[in-house]
Amino acid sequence: MRFLIFSIITFCFLCAFSQKSHAQRQYWFERNKKPSFYAQDAEQKLKTSNRILRPLHFGMFFGATFSGFRVGLQDDFIQNTNPAQYGGIVSVVPKNGAGLIIGAYSNLRISDFWDFRFCVNGFAGYERSLEYTFANGEKISKTVEASMFELPILFKYRSQLRGTRGLYLIGGIKPSFLLTSRKNDAKNITVKTQDFSIEYGFGFEIFYPYFKFAPELRFSHGFNNMLNDAEQNDFNTPLKSLTTHSAILILHFGG
User: pLDDT at position 164, please?
Assistant: First the structure.
């Protein structure tokens, strides 16, 4: 009988202790549990939407350029009636070169999907070459390295975001101003100091909690004839025009 009474008391005590421990564990869990993945995702989407709705934000970028000349040749050089007139040169072939671009931008929101973007390419380095072939089979390459100050003026169309990511299209114009130019020898082609290009491309935006990352591929086609024929020599005599063409891979970091 005593054993039965002792067992009942012990059982009740253990039940009460178990209920108290369970309540303490539940209280601790409620205070310390982290938001679920879906709650975090919803919160991040809300922050992204609020950032997109800001009328103005800024950022910086850097990238790699791959550029070359599009060559226009003199008519009689194309017909090849007198190679000796051009120092024995029989062909001119443009070659692409790599470069670097660094700058900053400001982005003005126009509507839900349209933005206006003004960029300052503080440094844009380009390397472009022309390969000359002579009648005797000899080949000579002439390289022009140019550092430009550029001011792209662009419009951006953004797609509907999927979570915190989205695609966009971008396009506009780009005035360019020559800062410095370097030739690989005295007898080389020279370029003018100003250019004007049309630019277009696409990119992919990824919104993080404190910044936005956007890789972008952009193409540029110049309208101005950049050939400076003030200094006549055997290498610029066959040329009628030089226009610039570039592909630019840019990495944007912004607010």
Answer: 81
Pair 189, 142: CB distance under 8 Å: yes
What radius of gyration do the chain's Cα atoms show? 33
Tell me which of 2.40.160.20, 2.40.30.20, 2.40.50.100, 3.40.50.720 is the CATH number of domain 56-254: 2.40.160.20
Q: Which residues contact 103 (CB under 8 A, 6 or more apart)?
A: 60, 61, 62, 119, 120, 121, 122, 123, 124, 150
Rounded to whole angstroms, how far apart are CA atoms 11 and 128? 89
Contact present, 147 and 179 (Cβ < 8 Å)? yes
Residues 168, 175: Cα–Cα separation, whole Å: 23
Measured distance CA(42)–CA(48) in Å, rounded: 10
Which pLDDT tens digit goes with each residue over 47-100? 555 566 678 889 999 999 999 999 999 888 888 766 677 888 889 999 999 999
Beta strands in the chain (DSSP E): 56-73, 89-95, 97-109, 114-134, 139-150, 153-158, 165-183, 190-191, 194-207, 212-222, 227-228, 239-254
**Rounded Cα gap, residues 242 and 132, in angstroms:** 15
Please state the pTM of the whole predicted model: 0.76
For residues 41 and 170, what is the distance between their CA atoms, to the nearest angstrom? 28
Q: Which positions ≥6 away from 218 have C-beta within 8 Å?
A: 170, 199, 200, 201, 247, 248, 250
